[in-house]
């Protein structure tokens, strides 16, 4: 199996490559650029509220600290496949939902069942078909095969435990990670793991380790930031002490990268909201000199050659 070289650049890609672009928070776009047929565009968790917007989670509130790094008004309207990991508003908000609804009519949506509750209670949606699109509601440990634009795509939904253990994750709201394998004309193109909101440890990964490790991962896209409850409020501070962090920090990411032996681990979901506690100052210094782990900042593009 031929493996792709991965470079990190803040530039556009040429034909014959694929790219991963961060928009901010958990929102990223993976694009395979082709010759002779349609490109393939996969996007994850569109949260597109403006800087300064406040989200209310009950026990705490969180403020968006950065503008979403969108490439114009038409950005994300050409997405073929949407991956929605779980039902929290910093992963799908009304602004992101609008992009899905105004986008390609034949786009496909993959969603954890908790997204249904978010749609009804927070986004006030009665129509759960995303505008009569093909929607696959997937719980962990389910498989799906798709054909889009001449690409064969195999998806496996894996557990995303939203805390240091399964019980705490269930309190916060567990979701999906997605293992995605893409080929064309029988030739491997890429295999990647989008972790969703989770904390890596041996127990949290145990149910899915076989599937994640049986074939090489070209890259991992992981949610960092060491998210936690807002420590400024009394109730939030108590919840933080009881629950702890609810997404990966740098140490978790280093351990995951070593265990899963990915060729590259790319870190999103940091710095965007005020409840993302760990600030990454640059691309690599938080990861103990491991050059195969890099933070991707909003507006940056990873070019896969």
Characterization of the model:
This protein has a single domain (6-304), classed as Metallo-beta-lactamase, Chain A, CATH 3.60.15. The longest helix is centred in the C-terminal third of the chain and has 11 residues, at 250-260. It has helices at 94-102, 114-122, 166-172, 202-206, 209-213, 234-243, 250-260; strands at residues 6-9, 18-24, 27-32, 40-44, 54-56, 61-63, 81-84, 108-111, 134-137, 142-148, 151-160, 175-184, 187-194, 219-223, 265-268, 293-295, 301-304. The protein is an alpha/beta fold and 305 residues long. Helices cover 18% and strands 30% of the residues. It starts with 5 loop residues before the first strand and ends with a strand. The strands form 3 sheets. The protein has an 8-stranded mixed beta sheet. The protein has a 7-stranded mixed beta sheet with strand order 10-11-12-13-14-15-16, covered by helices on one side. The protein is built from 7 helices and 17 strands.
Number of domains: 1
CATH architecture: 4-Layer Sandwich
Mean pLDDT: 89
Supply the number of helical segments: 7
- Can you tell me the CATH topology? Metallo-beta-lactamase, Chain A
Give, in order, the helices and strands: EEEEEEEHEHEEEHEEHHEHHEEE
> How is the biggest beta sheet arranged?
8 strands, mixed
Number of strands: 17
CATH H-level superfamily title: Ribonuclease Z/Hydroxyacylglutathione hydrolase-like
Strand order of the largest sheet: 1-17-2-3-4-7-8-9
Give the CATH level 1 class. Answer: Alpha Beta
């Amino acid at each position: 199996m031929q493996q792709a070289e991965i470079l990190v650049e803040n530039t556009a890609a040429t034909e014959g490559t694929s790219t991963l672009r961060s928009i901010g928070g958990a929102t990223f776009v993976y694009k395979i650029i082709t010759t002779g047929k349609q490109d393939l565009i996969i996007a994850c968790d569109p949260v597109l509220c403006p800087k300064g917007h406040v989200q209310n989670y009950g026990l705490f509130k969180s403020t968006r600290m950065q503008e979403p790094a969108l490439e114009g008004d038409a950005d994300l309207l050409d997405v073929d496949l949407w991956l929605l990991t779980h039902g929290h508003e910093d992963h799908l908000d009304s602004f992101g939902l609008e992009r899905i609804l105004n986008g390609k009519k034949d786009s496909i949506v993959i969603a954890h069942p908790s997204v249904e509750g978010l749609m009804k209670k927070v986004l006030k949606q009665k129509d759960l078909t995303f505008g009569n699109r093909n929607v696959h509601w997937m719980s962990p440990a389910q498989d799906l095969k798709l054909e889009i634009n001449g690409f064969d795509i195999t998806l496996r939904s894996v557990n995303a435990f939203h805390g240091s253990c399964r019980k705490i994750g269930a309190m916060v709201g567990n979701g999906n990670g997605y293992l995605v394998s893409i080929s064309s004309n029988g030739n491997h193109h890429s295999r990647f793991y989008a972790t969703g909101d989770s904390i890596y440890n041996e127990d949290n990964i145990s149910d899915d380790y076989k599937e994640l490790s049986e074939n090489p991962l070209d890259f991992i896209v992981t949610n960092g930031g060491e998210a936690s409850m807002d420590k400024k409020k009394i109730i939030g501070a108590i919840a933080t002490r009881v629950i702890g962090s609810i997404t990966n920090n740098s140490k978790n990411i280093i351990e995951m990268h070593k265990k899963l032996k990915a060729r590259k681990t790319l870190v999103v979901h940091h710095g965007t909201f005020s409840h993302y506690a760990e600030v990454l100052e640059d691309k690599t210094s938080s990861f103990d000199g491991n050059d195969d782990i890099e933070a991707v900042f909003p507006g940056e593009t990873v070019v896969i050659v």
